[in-house]
Design brief:
mainly alpha
């Protein structure tokens, strides 16, 4: 089973760097470090949510609009993607 990343590698790297910076800054400035970590989590949450909404839209586009005429194979693939993404979320 191949997992498609929800965020681009550059976004993941940038968010990881911000979090590492916050962790490293804790000793000298605990409050600022926690604020930076909070902002990083908020941005990560926003970006992942947007990516999930877009992924759901893309999966749905393969079968919605076809109505009853949707091919069984298209429906099977859509169901498989819905299952994979949902299970990934539930394992978090």
């Amino acid at each position: 089973m191949v997992h498609v990343a929800l965020l681009a590698q550059t976004d993941r790297d940038r968010l990881t760097l911000h979090l590492q910076h916050a962790l490293g800054a804790f000793v000298q400035s605990p409050q600022q470090a926690v604020q930076e970590a909070d902002i990083t989590l908020a941005e990560a949450t926003t970006r992942v949510t947007a990516a999930l909404v877009e992924r759901r839209r893309a999966i749905g586009a393969t079968h919605r609009g076809h109505g009853v005429e949707a091919e069984t194979e298209d429906l099977r693939l859509a169901l498989r993607e819905y299952r994979e993404i949902t299970l990934r979320l539930l394992r978090m």
